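Good day; I would like, with your permission, to put a structural problem before you. What I wish to show you is a protein chain and, alongside it, a tokenised description of its three-dimensional fold. I would ask you to consider whether the tokens describe a fold that such a sequence might reasonably adopt. You will find the record immediately after this paragraph:
***
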Amino acid sequence: MKIQFKTGKLAVSGLWFICAMAFATSATAANPNVKMTIEGDQLVITSKKDDNGCDSLNTKRPESGCIKVKKNDKATIDFLLTGDTKCGLENGIVWELNAVYLGGYNFESKPAGFGFDSTPDADFNKVNADFNVIDRSSGLVSTTVKSETKITINDENQSEYTVWYKVEALCQRTDGNPPHTTFTDPRVANGGAG
């Protein structure tokens, strides 16, 4: 698992973890979820590796937060922040989920950054068709539900590829300075349609 921290503008640290999701399309929708909590002002995935069917993945050893959606299913993915969301950082109030980003098209290991600026158009178009990417440079994905403790994204699963995702949480500050930011970012394996 990689946890990155930004205090103020850009101080980033952490470590990564890998997980995989397999997707496809049909009229039946899957509804996997990734549960997270704040521990020591870091966003930590609490879903276990086999909570969403990843115990049968062959490509990589499944890790916590892994999601696998059966072939010929579309996916509606919920990211859920549970437990105490109090922010203990300087002038912090509470942690709230903010966004989901994608990046690292078919990367075997974690990408240096998120987004698809260096990804060929044909490959980016596959990800965009599946996830509705709002901003190619950052990899920001369109959400269907967004609240302080829940973000939902959709995957149409038309193509086979792997991509990494990053969930971002923000802690607003009482002093008006930029919010504190924390991330957690496993990998997604898209299985494709038929």
User: Anything to note?
Assistant: Helices lie at 121-131. The chain has a mean pLDDT of 78. Residues 121-131 form the longest helix (11 residues).
